[in-house]
Design brief:
Blueprint lengths: L13 E8 L3 H9 L1 H7 L6 E7 L6 E7 L5 E12 L3 E5 L2 E2 L3 E2 L6 E9 L2 E9 L3 H9 L2 H19 L1
Antiparallel strand pairs: 1-9, 2-3, 3-4, 4-5, 5-8, 6-7, 8-9
Helix pairs in contact: 1-2, 2-4
């Protein structure tokens, strides 16, 4: 049973992607919480992840090292805030692991999984501190990027897990 969401989207500050995917919540959860799985689908191709670290506990680290096709590199540090197995995963870059404040926060993400037949109702919400950051994220391609990543996640689960 999925717990009710404690967070309601604010259209001025938040971006939301909601879809139903034909894979069970348990496999989506496993793909989201296991470093070797995250590295296979988490960033839109041709970008790739060379390293992923997960300490799945409140205050624990979620770190990825991403590489782009032209040699770009992006190292992302997040802190887990809430972990409800097979239901909800909340992480932010507003805090570093151990709840240390970060210098340049961009978002807090809430991933919600709900059983839907034999599949999963998947809701990803990116929360921002102000409308300008939300707008920037939308212009960066939030819906296409996070949608592509969800397609990659589903394809990875159905072909590999």
């Amino acid at each position: 049973m999925t717990r009710p969401s404690i967070v309601k989207p604010d259209p001025k500050l938040d971006l939301v992607l909601e879809r139903v995917v034909d894979v069970p919540c348990e496999l989506v959860w496993k793909a989201w919480t296991t470093p070797e799985h995250v590295a296979k689908w988490f960033t839109p191709k041709p970008w790739y992840i060379s390293d992923c670290e997960i300490d799945l506990c409140p205050g624990g680290i979620f770190r990825t090292v991403m590489h782009g096709p032209d040699g770009e590199q992006s190292i992302n540090h997040f802190c887990y805030l809430e972990i409800v197995p097979n239901e909800r995963l909340v992480w932010t870059d507003a805090l570093l692991p151990g709840y240390r404040p970060s210098k340049e926060p961009f978002l807090t993400a809430v991933i919600t999984l709900e059983p839907h037949g034999s599949g999963t109702k998947y809701t990803a919400m990116a929360m921002h501190r102000d409308e300008a950051i939300r707008q920037k994220h939308e212009e960066m391609g939030f819906h296409d990027g996070w949608g592509t990543v969800l397609d990659q996640l589903k394809d990875y689960i159905t072909t590999t897990m």
